[in-house]
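Reading a protein record of the kind used here takes only a little practice. The record below shows the convention in full.

——
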Amino acid sequence: MGHQSSVGEVVSSGRPHAPYKRVRIRLFGTNKTASTDSMSRPPGRRVVRWGNCLDPVRGCTGGRTNNGYGCWWGCYAKEASRRFHIIFDVPVPMILDELVLSRDLQRLDVGWVRIGVNGDPCFDWVTTARVAEIVAAHDKIPVVLTRVWRAPSRGTLQRLLDADTRLHVTLCAFDTRGFQSVRNKVLEMYSEMGGVAVTRLVTFAFLPESELWDTQDAMAQSGPVLEQPARIMKTNPVWKLLHHTRYVPHISYVSGRPDHRWLSAGTLYPRLPQCATGCSDCKHQCMTGYGAQRPLTSESSL
């Protein structure tokens, strides 16, 4: 039997759960971003040691929301962290060793870097901005993904802009007007400063009579928008608000076969750019081709 920890995670009778350990920020991949691991094997259910992802922060307080499922669709990073006995709901800033990160970037043959996978970068904007600068100094485009639980200062946005960062803010129709308003202000400010600000819209197939369709349709009009069809479990509290017959098993990035735990309604707005496949098959590459990129030099930030 297990027992409940002080932060709401179940602790097994054998190996206890704990927050992420502070380690150096390194590049890595995921089953979605890399089709093989560092030994050219299909990645399977193990950490992919090489790729174009990094985490200034691991963990996120958003994991406490939606009855512990995390964000409305169910946080994929939190679900994965359970296999490693990690308490995801406690954000832990990682250690920036600029020399080590620079060496990783020198080996990277991909032209952009995703910042924010196993946690939300917003819990350490100072380190996130510095990481973006280092990425840009190696002629790579930084792409920051965040739910903006903590808003960045204008000074931080300016640093991200100077690094030619693509700022993705994830939203969905279940978010309250107040929640959306705060995030939209960040997107608007960054856009007005000259940056590429992307609404990463997580989409759902609602019940036919649901007013949430109107909300989602309106959000899909406020570009630039990247659609990310939600993957969701039937145990998620919002499942009862969805049109079940439109959902089918998601094709696993691990096995390439239907995963009956995770369901998806697929693309709902075909005119929008999509985040709906493995990264190697995606022509949009996190919108890195959107907008004019300023020339970068290796001396610009180091």
